[in-house]
Amino acid sequence: MSRLRALFICPGRGSYRRDQLGSLQHTSPAVDAMEQVRAQRGMKSLREIDASPRFSSRLHMAGEHASLLTAACSWVDFERLDPEKVEVVAIAGNSMGWYTALGIAGVLDITSCATLIDTMGSYQAGNIIGGQFVYPLTGPDWRPDPKRHALVASVVAEIPDLYWSIRLGGIAVLAGTPMALEAAMERLPSETRGAVTYPLVLPLHSAFHTPLLQGTAGTARTELAHLPWGMPTVPLVDGTGRSWRPLFADPAAIAHWTLGDQVSDVFDFTAMVRAALGEYGPDVVILPGPGEGLGGAVAQVMIEMGWRDMRSRDDFMAQQISGDGPLVSMCRPDQAARVGLG
Which of 97, 110, 178, 261 could pair covalently with 265 via S-S, beta carbons 3.0-4.6 A apart? Predict the structure, then answer.
């Protein structure tokens, strides 16, 4: 049997939820290295937080913990991949997940990657700048809705200090000052889908990927100037849809984007997935445990592209339940068995 070609997408900050409790209690060289970084910085052990008897938003979603918890779980799932079953042909990451992707792809060693993630996360401790909320751009069938997109675009254009933060498939992640967010949420019609009502505010999130974070980017460039950047060993696709390839990527350019526009300009997850699917033609997209929530956004990009003749949510679900679907969520044992060890 030939190996599956895979795109591995690392999820962003805040993806670690109650379903991930206990994920870090197994042997993992990556988590061991991350724990050493935490200890040197005088921060609480990841494994100790992960072993909590119950999930606490105040603890598990706090900026100084949430980022590296998510990264650690993603790395553990990467370590679980069976090289006899799967070949990772490209790696990407959503928002903070880009930092994880840098480590998994070899641009940064594990210690440097953990330092980057922990440092960027620590800037949010008691220092939330603005905020974020999400709003759907598609109908319930996940097909693009031009009228809805035009409404959101007009709101962003007309309200000062409101910005596109992440273009997340069929979801708009908007960010800005508290006053701008309040004005935007008054303009956008409330809508309930399942158990979620939009606009949905993301708790404890700053206005990531907007000009409001330019100061944070400047601080990071100074404090992280010592990190040893290298070339990736696997193609990386960033939040503009650009590929960084082994042997050809410029480490200094990767660092410049990571600690510059990546922090203070829109992160285009849609362009990233579209480019990765088009350039590398994976058989599957692998979402590590905390990243299962990205499944809808990835599927919406596939539908927009007409990838594998998918034109709607029903088309996607029909392929997904066939057992040979385009998405593999590592938190689902039946799906993880397609690419994982034991």
Answer: 261
Structure confidence by residue, pLDDT tens digits, 33-47? 999 998 998 888 999
Beta strands, E only, 154-299: 162-168, 171-176, 191-193, 196-198, 200-201, 236-237, 243-244, 284-287
Domain that holds residue 170: 131-205
Q: Is the dihedral of CA 42, 46, 48, 54 positive or negative?
A: positive
Contact indicator for 149, 169 with CB cutoff of 8 Å: no
Which CATH number covers residue 66? 3.40.366.10
Residue 342 in any domain: the answer is: no
Q: Helix or strand or coil: residue 170? A: coil
HSE-CB of 304 using CA atoms within 13 angstroms:
24
Question: Residue 19 and residue 60: Cα distance in Å, rounded?
Answer: 12
What's the DSSP call for residue 217?
H
Number of domains within the chain = 2
The phi, psi pair for 249, rounded to 5°, reads: -70, 145
pLDDT tens figures, 129-179: 999 999 999 999 999 999 999 999 999 999 999 999 999 999 999 999 999
Q: What is the domain-level CATH number for residue 181?
A: 3.30.70
Strand partners, 90: 7
Please write the tens of the pLDDT for every residue from 262-290.
Answer: 999 999 999 999 999 999 999 999 999 78
Helix (H, G, I), strand (E, B) or coil at 62: coil
